[in-house]
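Standup notes, structure subgroup. Blocker cleared on the iron/sulfur cluster input:
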Amino acid sequence: PATALTEERTVDSLCPFCGVGCAVRYRVRDDRIIAVEGADGPANRGRLCVKGRFGFDYVHHPQRLTQPLIRRADAPKDPSLSGDWREQFRPASWEEALALASGGLKTILEQQGPQALAGLGSAKGSNEEAYLFQKLVRTGFGSNNVDHCTRLCHASSVAALMEAVGSAAVSNPVADVAYSDVILLMGANPEANHPVAASWMKNAVKAGTELLLLDPQALPLARHARHHLQFVPGSDILLLNAMIHVLFEQDLVNWSFVEARLKREEVEALRQAVQAYAPEAVAEQCGVTAAQIRQVTHVYASANRAMMFWAMGVTQHTHGTDNVRCLIALCLLTGQIGRPGTGLHPLRGQNNVQGASDAGLIPHCLPDYQKVAEPEVRARFAQAWGAPVPDSPGLTTVEMMQAAHQGSLQGMYIVGENPAMSDPDLTHTRAGLARLSHLVVQDLFLTETAALADVVLPAAAFAEKGGSFTNTDRRVQLGRPVIPAPGEAKQDWWLIQQMAQGLGLAWDYQGPEQIYREMQALMPSLAGIPYERLQAESSVVYPADDPAQPGQSVLFAKGFARPGGRARLVPATPPQQQENADKDYPFTLITGRLLEHWHTGTMTRRSQVLSALAPQAQILVHPETLTRLGLHAGQSARLRSRRGSVVAQLLSSSQVRPDDLFLPFSFREAAANLLTRDALDPVAKIAALKLCAVALEPVA
Ligand code: SF4
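Run returned:
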């Protein structure tokens, strides 16, 4: 007779993958998740994508870390990541591992000073964990060398938005597309990366909203678009400046909005700056027609309500900040902001990349974007924390890898991030990580980054902990523990606290609730969201001033968060340091994600369903290119850039232009970032991860 099964239970929580922040209901039996269903959350109303619905089983994967690991004395770090790196580690007790982890950092601090240490926190952890981590680096390490993966995705959006409108988050939620007459979508593939958000957009199109798609790839979403500008990769500044030119040329500027909300002299400076960008002057370089540029601009500007979305096709360039400045200028000059169905929406990637940035997990800002450079801000936090707050600028993610390579950075604590896959120029990055004299990695699996660690701390997965998470709409939502963590794995907040205690900090937090209360007291945006409200409502939009009122889902109805309420316009300059295709590297490689896989694949490639759906990396090549090169779909080919090479299978696809190729970056065996460059945007320090020049060669 079959053993009687224990009773099934359900727990309502959130999806751990993208920034849409879908509410899910976990079905659990015997402390194992057996199914996930969409719940009635404000972001999804029961909808889920394939990742949210089927990508949960990574939590039960046999490769989960269940005890601390320490590098064996006879196992040197191997940046080539060859062989089975699990053999390089031995199990250890928590006592031994934590003493070594924090002791190694402390020794570096005492001998070489605060600048020899840095921390990378996680956009997949909770707000409380992000808050604690940045507090640890600032008060324990004594520097602002703290960052996370926002540096690789929307740092340029944050920089441009802060500069222009005084707020780094979206102005309107995704669901506002229901009120839009026009959606302008640039450099984003929401069907793959924010699928439920894409479903709201498609619903809006079905109901009559017009979609304008600006993207070098003919994404499947193009079939829903009224206009698709399939521009040449890297010609974005030309294209956007031409669109701004058209606003002035065809008198599409909303002058009453401009008079009330912008500075006339900045508008004039922008008009002068785009004078040389007539559509006829740039259309050929952009690979579109002047008429198309005028049409798209006209449709956007003349709409009653137009909303703008963008993602990493816009941001991951050395001119990423300038790209976003141009989008903001288009929006502001036409007055498409401050009302439902309008506004600016950078589609945030990870489930908590918005919250992690808000909580201060960035080098130049304390929680709520309060600048470390301002003495009164530092004084306020120093008083609250009982410890001085360092004032010197901190290193950003890619700068940390460069400093590690140069030897000025000696110790790192990395929680839930995988720079050995996600950072540009991986050969250089991995060599830098291997050069560190002390690396502590805290994660679910023995990732490519953990392979180069001295100490590995096993952490609880999303479903094994509680805390608050902030989605792309600025919704602070409560994640609830669903199952216990396996073996000896611990919650991230507890581990961060152990590290802090090892460094001499007298922390004694009892859990996420206490941490949230401390964080909330220091973040004006959360003033109206006490913990009790979060527990009762599960999901509240910030900013919220009054606990009895809903938060503000639409920002800037009356003014911008800047002096005098006026926004700032900054003209973009032509990009100087792009790597263009040439005779040796004749193709432009576009990197990105797939619907089935999330970022470096740590979780989704350990999901049976997702892995079965997309088991390997494939290079998308236009059919004409295959014919011209005598190649065929299904064969293996080598992609070679100035920095490295990878081999993957060819897939014939008209999605890419004949001069372009596409490779997803989630697959270690064909890691796209072995090819990319670590050149940085001078303002936001985001790397040029989106494009690079490559050669394509057959492999015998
Ligand atoms: Fe999860 Fe994003 Fe898919 Fe929603 S859209 S189910 S949050 S991955």
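Discussed briefly. The radius of gyration is 24 Å.
Next: hand off to the docking folks.
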